[in-house]
Amino acid sequence: ETGVTQTPRHLVMGMTNKKSLKCEQHLGHNAMYWYKQSAKKPLELMFVYNFKEQTENNSVPSRFSPECPNSSHLFLHLHTLQPEDSALYLCASSQEGESTDTQYFGPGTRLTVL
Amino acid sequence: LAKTTQPISMDSYEGQEVNITCSHNNIATNDYITWYQQFPSQGPRFIIQGYKTKVTNEVASLFIPADRKSSTLSLPRVSLSDTAVYYCLVTGGGNKLTFGTGTQLKVEL
């Protein structure tokens, strides 16, 4: 499925680097999400954007900075990360921001912080 | 917020029907039950959603008893490719979309 794409698929970065993850959805949805999935842990919702406005920030450290320039694109800017931030970062979109809406996930970015 | 409980893991063989039960004792009137499937290193994929009684699509069936305090995802004639983690979620109302640890289904020959 190519409804939600994420780049890069894999990323290795040092703790002092700055990088960005990109997500794009081609489904005409109005809500976009960032999730973090660490090894053997449940998905953790990080941020929610609805009509380009951030509607949820689940106490995410400031070293993660989201950006949503329009309803189709979502970025996650990373800086001064820690090794424990290594995880699979998943982007999703849905028609609106309701939890009953089906969420469509991208393939994820596998991030390794050295 | 409604909490869900489901088995950590299940094993099955190809061709068998698999039923995964989820309990959600404090489900509210406006809540729905939604199931997602996740393969390793991929994002979850929506399987099915229901409110009450029975819902069926091309992939699975969802059985919800009258009291709605539990639900059962039924996968007919599983194959090796159905090996995945299955998540039961209560959605709607004031609930956030919260993924628990899910049920790891392993299908063998």
What would your notes on this structure say?
The complex is a heterodimer of chains A (114) and B (109). In chain A, 0% of the residues lie in helices and 56% in strands. Chain A is built from no helices and eleven strands. Helix content of chain B is 0%, strand content 48%. The model of chain B has no long low-confidence stretch (mean pLDDT 92). Classes of the chains: A mainly beta (114), B mainly beta (109). The interface between A and B is medium-sized, with 21 and 21 residues.
Report a brief summary of the structure.
The complex is a heterodimer of chains A (114) and B (109). Chain A is mostly beta strands.
Q: Main sheet of chain B: which strands, in order across?
A: 1-9-8-3-4
Q: Quick one: how many beta strands of chain B?
A: 9
Number of helices of chain A: 0
State the order of secondary-structure elements of chain A, H for helix, E for strand.
EEEEEEEEEEE
Distance between the termini of chain B: 40 Å
Radius of gyration of chain B: 13 Å
The low-pLDDT segments of chain B are none
Strand content of chain A: over 45%
Q: What count of helical segments of chain B does DSSP give? A: 0
| Cα separation of the termini of chain A | 31 Å
Largest sheet of chain B: 5 strands, mixed
Task: From the alpha carbons, calculate the radius of gyration of chain A and give it in angstroms.
Answer: 13 Å
The chain-level structural class of chain A is mainly beta
Describe this protein with a few key phrases.
heterodimer; A: 114 residues; mainly beta; seven-stranded mixed β-sheet; four-stranded antiparallel β-sheet; 0% helix; B: 109 residues; five-stranded mixed β-sheet
Map the helices and strands.
The complex is a heterodimer of chains A (114) and B (109).
Chain A: E1 4-7, E2 10-13, E3 18-25, E4 31-37, E5 44-50, E6 53-57, E7 64-70, E8 73-79, E9 87-94, E10 104-105, E11 109-113
Parallel strand pairs in A: 2-11
Antiparallel strand pairs in A: 1-3, 3-8, 4-5, 4-9, 5-6, 7-8, 9-10, 9-11
Chain B: E1 9-13, E2 18-23, E3 32-38, E4 45-50, E5 53-56, E6 61-64, E7 70-75, E8 84-91, E9 103-108
Parallel strand pairs in B: 1-9
Antiparallel strand pairs in B: 2-7, 3-4, 3-8, 5-6, 6-7, 8-9
